[in-house]
Amino acid sequence: MFAEYSSSELMSIFAMQGFAGLILFSVFVLMALGLAIIFGQMGVINMAHGEFMILGAYITYLVSNLFSQHFPELFSYYFFIAMILAFFATALLGALVEWGMIRFLYHRPLDTLLATWGLSLILQQIYRSVFGAREVGVTLPDWLMGSYQLSETIEIPVNGLFVMSLAIAISLAVAVLMYRSRWGIQVRAVVQNRPMAGAVGINTAKVDRMTFALGCGIAGIAGSAFTMIGSTGPTSGQLYIVDTFLVVVFGGATSLLGTIASAFGISQAQSTMEFFISGSMAKVLTLLFVVMVLMIRPQGLFNLKVRR
Amino acid sequence: MKRSGHSKLTKRWLSSLCSLAASCALSVTAMAAEVNTTGLAVTDTTVKVGILHSVTGTMAISETGSVQAEKLAIEQINAMGGVLGRKIEFIQEDGASDWPTFAEKSRKLLVNDKVAAVFGCWTSASRKAVLPIFEQYNGMLYYPTFYEGLEQSPNVIYTGQEATQQIIAGIDWVVKNKDAKTFYLLGSDYIWPRTSNKIARKHIEKLGLKVVGEEYYPLGHTQFNSVINKIKLRKPDVIYAIVVGGSNVAFYKQLKAAGIDMTKESPLVLTISVTEDEILGIGGENMVGAYAAMKYFQSLPNANNEAFVKAFKERWGNDIVIGDVTQAAYLGPWLWKAAVEKAGSFDIDKVRAASPGIELTTAPEGYVKVHENHHLWSKTRIGHAQADGQYKVVYETEELIEPDPFPAGYQ
């Protein structure tokens, strides 16, 4: 397996694959973070997570059209505005969904699964009616499409770097929000003991709504970023949802650190294996490995002790 | 008294009118029976056909164009007076990208609706699912997609290309004109890309050239960084890509981001799975420079095609693009009409017997003819992707290529 490459080639293979793995890792973190917040902190299985991502992607598409038609001179920068809008739009939709549906289903995780799955179908149909069944092409500013050449064989795509820095920025922001802010303390208090948190004066309903909206908002940003690497169609969200759940469950659903660690493990393993064996086999082996670990540690890699 | 007499008269009048109508109806049914002895949904003014595609689910993206093409063809045929003097009515069913649903809906169309023909299916999986039903109830399916071959059914007319028609001419062209020596084969992981690549590999090796890599990714895969790295290391002359659906968007965007500029043609990208429809999602600027081997491109310069594109845009909107499969779907109703008229009957067996040898000189792709093996003779063309999302035709085979669904030595 290694014999067909020279040692210098192997060096650059590992460098390139390591980097490809880092990009995949960032993608996984962006996909899974929103889901982990909602699932880990609220116990809601959000099957519509992929559709929230696609809403972010469609908003990016709309903003890119708007800019190319009305403000072509500012086109290079539209992406930042698109991401901010994507965050607020999906967060708003998330808050609406929490208010209209999710709040009646707390403590019934399997029902949230069904309800959000229905929601995902409804959203898909809405996208199909509004944007058409075909995929839409999101035009990217030129600076996002280039790459830096490090050596003859090692080239680093700019959009990969962009996704990586975005993943780092959002993880840090979430960490600060959860572990350093007053609101984060409230969220964690509600997770650990809801009646007690309510008794000490925390508005648990409001905390729930904000948490759900935040998770959805992050999905929106992820979707916006993914227009750089993936497709945007009514059903594209489905492509991401399996990987996302895989990362969250493997990491231990209640731990954000676990989500990040599991995203790292899965992405590096998959990316290295993809190089030496086929893409489909790499996926199969990754899934087998995850299943085996979950048989030994059903609660996932990392887990918070929660009073049940 | 007067009143009853009057009513008697009316009665007699009415009864004679009735018998007149009855005898008329009788002769009409006799007329309908001549062209339809097997109880299909044919009256003396109408004939019912089925359209069976996915308009929901993941395949809706691809199959929408086929539905539009088939409806346009039916409308045009009706405007010309229909088939054997009968207007075509269609019953549309949704396969919902789900193969059991396809099977169930095809049974409904054949058994309950008694349609005279069905235009439909897109993926090989959906075709395989409906095939036993069409054979059991003796229906006629017009199937539009380019596909892997290795199939021939008396109940299907294949209006797209089978694998050898599309692949071999394309590879011959890059070998001859672009001096290609090494190939990297890449595809989505299911039957069509795998069979196509098998034929491609056989042909490449027969020419004494080399395949330096072959790779498959699950449907819907969006991370191609690893394979792009491999391609960079192995430095093939040609990337032969059969990635399908939304994965294409990821593949070409990442190819570009990784610094592979397809306009430099080193490596050159040759695809058989990206039509104008897919480019809409990929974005013309990410596809520019790639080559595609197919039988039809929207930009094909001939009078038939210009009329077709104009009519299609008038009917379905100016922004629409027309890909290879959409054109093949458009051929279906026309080929059926020609076969019915040649047979002088809607009966499936007679239509089937009349089908081989049917020609269309008005086809947008130029000229087509039905082979005895139920596939079409067709040319293979090479399109060069432009920034506006259209292909420029840079080459076409001189002769029509004979369809060969069971190629010797390629299986």
UniProtKB/TrEMBL annotation, chain A:
Sorted alphabetically, the Gene Ontology cellular component annotations on this record are: plasma membrane
InterPro entries per UniProt? ABC_transp_permease, ABC_UrtB_bac, BCAA_transport_permease
Q: Is S-adenosyl-L-methionine tagged as a keyword?
A: no
Membrane-crossing ranges are 20-40, 52-71, 77-97, 156-179, 212-233, 239-263, 275-296
The protein's UniProt keywords, in alphabetical order, are: Amino-acid transport, Cell membrane, Membrane, Transmembrane, Transmembrane helix, Transport
Q: Which GO terms describe its biological process?
A: amino acid transport
**Topology class, membrane:** Multi-pass membrane protein
GO terms (molecular function) for this protein are: transmembrane transporter activity
Location of this chain's protein in the cell: Cell inner membrane
Pfam families given in the database record: BPD_transp_2
Q: Could you tell me which PANTHER family the record lists for this protein?
A: ABC TRANSPORTER PERMEASE PROTEIN, BRANCHED-CHAIN AMINO ACID TRANSPORT SYSTEM PERMEASE PROTEIN LIVH
Family per record? Belongs to the binding-protein-dependent transport system permease family. LivHM subfamily.
Q: What is this protein called?
A: Urea ABC transporter permease subunit UrtB
Protein's organism: Cellvibrio polysaccharolyticus
Gene expressing this chain: urtB
